[in-house]
Amino acid sequence: MILADDSTLLREGLARLLADEGHRVLAAVGDAEALLAAVADEPPDVAVIDVRMPPHHRDEGLRAALTIRERWPAVGVLVLSQYVERRYATELLTGSPEGVGYLLKDRVVEIEEFLDALERVAAGRTAFDPEVVRQLLARGGHERALDALTAREREVLTEMAQGHTNAAIATRLFISRSAVEKHVNAIFTKLDLTALAATTHSRRVLAVLRYLGA
């Protein structure tokens, strides 16, 4: 994998942590230009990228993530930042969510949580922080459609948008898998997404995010 963060302390700390966990770190860089060069030199399974990096510390990392997804679609992208940069995050998440994640640094409280997200993204799945999902869904302009969902269906929708499987949702919400499946079907029906309900898990996440305006 490749790490990109302008904080030397965080970058080197992550590199050491990942090496200790058996992951091979191909490069650890501090700016978007070096990130793209490193990916071009040896495309990794996944790149962990901060949003704000030199030279302007605005959205250089996220724009580099979009470039990676365009040029090297097989490379997973895990954004690890303090901020939810909505414009480019929307483009990243609604372009093709396979192998995409977005975590907030301040909300990652367990190393295992980060490693689980990293492995999901590397495997072509998704990993979204609940707060990222909340902020993106909140601006979608489909509140009337959301009003049709029950409280439990909203919970399931949030878990779906984070990239969790039905089995994982059942465990996290302490309900049966059949109950999750029932709620998922209800969500697709109420959001007029029934035609997409039978597609893969990552595509249903994309459908939900697109419908809600992400």
Automatic annotation (TrEMBL):
Protein name per UniProt: Response regulator
Keyword list, A-Z: DNA-binding, Phosphoprotein, Transcription, Transcription regulation
Residues covered by the Response regulatory domain: 1-120
InterPro entries, sorted: CheY-like_superfamily (IPR011006), NreC/VraR/RcsB-like_REC (IPR058245), Sig_transdc_resp-reg_receiver (IPR001789), Tscrpt_reg_LuxR_C (IPR000792), WalR-like (IPR039420)
Keyword flag Transcription regulation: yes
GO MF term set: DNA binding
Originating organism: Streptomyces mimosae
SUPFAM superfamilies from the UniProt entry: CheY-like
